[in-house]
Amino acid sequence: MQTVTIHTSQNIGIDYEIAGVGDRVLARMIDYGIFIALLIASLLVVPNLGGGDSVMLWYFATMYALFVFYDLICEVFFNGQSLGKRIMKIRVISLNGKRPTFGQYLIRWLFRIVDFVITGVVGLICAAVTQNVQRVGDLVAGTTLIRTKPRTTIDNLVYAPTVDTYEPVFKEAALLTDRDIALVNDVIQAYMKVGNAALVYNMAEKLKGHLGISIPETMNDMLFLQTIIKDYSHMVSHQADAL
Predict the structure, then answer these.
(1) How far apart are CA 109 and CA 112, in angstroms?
(2) What is the per-residue pLDDT across 217-243, written as a single tens digit (0 to 9) for each?
(3) Which of 158, 15, 25 is nearest to 93 (CA)?
(4) Range(s) of the domain holding residue 188
(5) Are both 32 and 108 inside the same structural domain?
């Protein structure tokens, strides 16, 4: 299993499982299958709509334009995923830790000519031999594809709404923000994907330093992070009820 470490703006390194060449190929086959199905359906339906050759010409020109710009449109508007990528649970990310920009998506799309159109195999060969499974477009754009499905779902980690009688263990959690808690969730999910305990340790140490707290000897770092989430969720929900 190959992983890539992405450093967030808080300087926390999160490991993601890289999507393999097989994942990419299957996602592409699904996308092509969608267009083939639409083409077959159009050959059966469009001729019966009337309008003659002009309607057929307009329809197939539209279909061709959608086919050409399909990846760019999907990745820009659906957070780095086409329909095939969504089904395969993979998506495009930027290696700088930020959300990919339109320019990065555009570069990936433009370099499809090099990766697939000219010879048909350059992109696959490049993805197979590069460290982060990147085709030429990814190398130039500074992107790669990761798997989005964790081995253990977040439902096993994030607590259900707490009962009114729950007493927060770390009241200092109220000093955190939604963004902080989202990052804690990301770290826990990344750990469950790749099993890198250093992620949990580093996140726990940063939180303890930021909040100025220490944890009981019987509490490990993972339980600490889960408790922080639970405490924060409880206090925020009660603050909202009081408004």
Answers:
(1) 5
(2) 888 898 999 999 988 888 887 665 444
(3) 15
(4) 154-242
(5) yes
139 and 26 co-located in one domain: yes
CB 26 within 8 A of CB 33: no
Q: Are the beta carbons of 145 and 92 closer than 8 angstroms?
A: yes
CA 103 to chain centre: 18
Alpha-carbon span 123 to 169, nearest angstrom: 52
How far is C-alpha 63 from the chain's CA centre? 28
- pLDDT tens for residues 141-200? 999 999 887 544 444 444 444 556 778 899 999 999 888 898 998 888 888 877 778 888
Domain count of the chain?
Answer: 2
b or e along 214-224 (b: 16 or more beta carbons within 10 Å of the residue's beta carbon)?
A: ebeeeeebbeb
The answer to whether 31 touches 70, Cβ cutoff 8 Å, is: yes
- Same domain for 27 and 143, yes or no, is yes
